[in-house]
Amino acid sequence: MRHPREIGASNPAGERAAAAALSLCSVSCTFVDRARTGQRYTAVRDVDLAIAPGEFVSVVGPTGCGKSTLLNVSAGLLAPSSGSVEVFGRPLQGLNARAGYMFQAESLMPWRTARQNVLAGLEFRGIADAAARADDWLRRVGLARFADRYPHQMSGGMRKRASLAQTLALDPDIVLMDEPFSALDIQTRQLMENEVLALWAAKRKAVLFITHDLDEAIAMSDRVVVLSAGPGSRPIGEFTVDLPRPRDVAEVRGDARFIELHRAIWAVLRDEVLKGYAQQQEET
Amino acid sequence: MKGKIRIWQLLLLVLLFAFWWAATRPGLVPPILFETDKQAAFFFGEPLKVFARIWQWFVTDADIYRHLGVTLVETVLAFAIGAAAGLGCGLWLALSPFAAAVADPYIKALNSMPRIILAPIFAVWFGLGIGSKIALGVTLVFFIVFFNVYQGVKEVSPVVLANARMLGANGRQLLRHVYLPSATSWVFSSLHTSVGLAFVGAVVGEYLGSSQGVGYLILQAEGTFDINTVMAGILVLTAFALALDAAVGRIERRVLAWQPVGAETEKL
Fold first, then answer.
1. What pLDDT, in 10s, does the model give residues B127-156?
2. CATH 3.40.50.300 segments of chain A
3. Which of A40, B24, B115, B190 allows an S-S link to B148, with CB 3.0 to 4.6 Å?
4. Which DSSP symbol is given to A177?
5. Which of B159, B167, B259 shows the shortest C-beta gap to A166?
6. What is the count of residue pairs from A and B with beta carbons less than 8 Å apart?
7. Residue B70 belongs to a domain with what CATH number?
8. Verdict on whether the full-model pTM lies above 0.90
9. Do the domain assignments include residue B199?
10. Residue B198 domain-assigned?
11. Looking at the domain that runs over A14-98+172-283, which CATH code has it been given?
12. Residue B262 belongs to a domain
């Protein structure tokens, strides 16, 4: 495993662990095929990753490198085969109650309107001023006028906004996002990215953001982690993004520093993308 | 467009009755299939006499309402009991894989059994009143609803489920807010079939042995070779089934408002 030249000062994961909102310590995940027990697939191996409170960290990597696996482990939906997960210094058991998870696929309950969907989590947790909070979040994501629409009556962008409001209405300390905007067109996507950045700037949650889009990762994050191609993916590069905030995701792309960072990260990522592509070719 | 379709549908209906009338009218068409010109009327009935019979039932004698009421009560009760039992069993088995694996061959066996032949047994168990008819309808409705609910729970989107769990739903809340709504949508999508079967159960039960109901009227008429009354009974049952189906469609549209329908554009 080669170690790339790192741009900017990045502390080793260990030093940050004490105060980390979320830390993964040598996490490995091996999946066993139930039909053919001999078949094993190690998605991620020995992953160390720590996210400080209020830090926005993006993970990029080629397709099929186990990015979503890391997120599921962080959410407590998936138990790692080995290694441990700590949330604010406490070992994670069961679901991560301090985390909000924004899924890549459609996750709204189709039988609930936008408002009822945003209310869902607040109701489940028995929060007192649920209705007021839901209305407030609908307004913040610009869905106040569409509160009574069912998911199938909303556009893809509106559904993502509803998901965002649903997740953030619970005021989680950690926000996990799995390629949340990958299904959106580029204009809607940039609008949503700016909205997320504005919401994040106001509340300063720890964010673990998974994406395959390097531009998006650099434009939004404090730190970008590059995963190697699977199987057995692990972080092979960490880059601190020292672009000034607040940022506009469309404008920041023209910044000289952005281009420099992009070139440096892409140099690491490119080989892995090619490797991942070659593996997929072999499999088919 | 819609009006045009309605007109053509009505026209087709009138045409069908006209053909029926012309083919069975003694002396109008020379007998081809039958030996005398009276036989067509004997085997197929005559539409005018059939309508006269229906008129008698509904207006002059007004004695069919009791029978229709009995058949309706049987249908509704069979549907309600069968659907509730199917929903309960479907949810339970879908959520406990062990019980499902144990019960699997028995459910397959019960489902593939021709359940109409249970009618005589039910008549012995529950008597000739409405009990045996409801029991027959329940066995027909139960499996339709059961399989749909089972499928519905199995096919809950794993992402929606994971999302609900991340939002803090406990086991009971998952059942109430995720599994049940998902399953009911499947129940309603099978509602047309299951209400139809509840109706079939009621009428067949009455036909096999009873003292009231539309099926009983048909059985009585058949005993005296009164083909016109049999036909009248069939027509009334058909109209009744259509009305029931329309009512179901109305309820379905209200309950499943969240489900996407084709297109929702409006011409301005």
1. 888 899 999 999 999 988 898 888 888 888
2. 14-98+172-283
3. B190
4. E
5. B167
6. 69
7. 1.10.3720.10
8. no
9. yes
10. yes
11. 3.40.50.300
12. no
ipTM of the complex: 0.84
Q: Do A111 and B182 touch (CB under 8 A)?
A: yes
Hey, is the C-beta of A92 within 8 angstroms of any chain B C-beta? no
Question: Is B3 in contact with B11 (CB distance < 8 Å)?
Answer: no
CA–CA separation, B63 and A65 (whole Å): 75
Alpha carbon distance B86, B145 (integer Å): 5
Could you read off the pLDDT of B39-84 as tens digits, one per residue? 778 888 888 899 999 999 999 988 889 999 999 999 999 999 998 9
Q: What is the least distance, in Å, from the CA of A219 to any CA of chain B?
A: 27
The mean per-residue pLDDT over the stretch A196-214 comes to 89
Instruction: For residue A82, give the H/E element and its range.
Output: strand A82-87
Q: Which of A77, A110, A121 sits opposite B167 (nearest CB)?
A: A121
pLDDT in tens, A84-138: 999 998 899 889 999 999 998 889 999 999 999 999 999 999 988 899 999 999 9
* Domains of chain B: total: 2
Whether residues B128 and B18 fall in one domain: no
Q: Is residue B264 part of a domain?
A: no
Chain B's closest residue to A148, CA to CA, is B258
State the alpha helices, DSSP H only, in B96-208.
97-112, 119-126, 130-154, 158-166, 171-174, 180-189, 191-208
Contact A120 B178 (CB under 8 A): no
**Which residue in chain A has the smallest CA separation from B169?**
A124
Domain membership of residue B226 as a residue range: 46-255
Judged by DSSP in three states, A22 sits in strand
